[in-house]
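Run: sequence + UFG -> complex structure.
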Amino acid sequence: MILIVGGAGYIGSHVNKVLNEKGYDTLILDNFSYGHQELVQWGEVVEGDLGDGELLDRIFQEYPITGVMHFAAFTYVGESVTHPAKYYHNNTSNTLNLLRSMIKNKVRNFIFSSTCAVYGFPEKIPLTEDHPLDPINPYGRSKLMVEQMLHDFSQAYDFNYISLRYFNAAGCDPEIETGEWHEPETHLIPLILDAARGIRDKVSIFGTDYPTPDGTCIRDYIHVLDLASAHIKAMEYLEKNNKSQIFNLGNGQGFSVREVIECCRKVTGKNIQAVDEDRRPGDPPVLLGSSKKAKELLDWKVEWVELEDIITSAWKWHEKLYQELKTR
Ligand code: UFG
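>> structure
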């Protein structure tokens, strides 16, 4: 049985769905601070907090957990600058709590949701796993500290991990059973889709003077189901090889903010209004990853190659979110 910490969130709920489709038993631990009950449709659920060491010990003693996937983190980069304690407490200190309980209860396989934010400003594109690590905000540092703990734990204890550095997670389950539901929403694609639906009157373009072909930031958008398949392959790799690893997970293609908006116009058929604004602090001009290592060692493949398909899947979910879920 796999313990999915934060399984009621965007990425965790997709991984939970795919694990169950593949025949794994899952147990979700979520405190529902940002997660949603509606997104947990597979596996068993325990409502509780990572800070609760007794609860963690009880879970490891009562359930036959063989591996842990950890998605429960705060991810608002801007908020991490104004409320760093919240980020170090939840993302770093609570993760330490989880790791200690795993060691104590002899659960040795751990998959960690890391981020391309650990790199900071890129010196070289595409980013590879050996690029220098110099995060530029507390969010990225809170995740890097966990990577450092993981390294030390794997040296000292009977413990193996895989750290997955996601680029920009995008898209949703095409069967629209789960999807992206952040409150507040700050991510580009769902905000553009809000504008397409008329929930917002426009979308802001943060910065038009970047050193990129059209002056707007370039990101690497990776479908959430491609992230999900990598998690399963990562867990299988740990079970087979007993060897810790760090992998980038990106699509390998870069799209500018203007290109993403244009693609959303095409998918939705709506004339989405976009307004040029100042840069958002802390945004690197280009984040683009090489996932060669994951492809080679995990035998992982990106299935969702086209941005248009990724956005189409997000648009389908967006309909359900506003027609059914947010009206309750
Ligand atoms: N953007 C806009 N307008 C908006 C929202 C975003 O122009 O209304 C731009 C941003 O400036 C950025 C791009 O769209 O250039 C993508 O922004 P997102 O907020 O969707 O995603 P980020 O790249 O900021 O964030 C992602 C993850 C974070 C992670 C970060 C690493 O969501 O968890 O990558 O840099 F920390």
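>> summary
The pocket of UFG is lined by residues 75, 77, 115-117, 139, 168, 186-188, 191, 203-206, 217, 219, 257, 280, 283, 287 (CB under 6 Å). Residues 197 and 270 are 8 Å apart (CA to CA).
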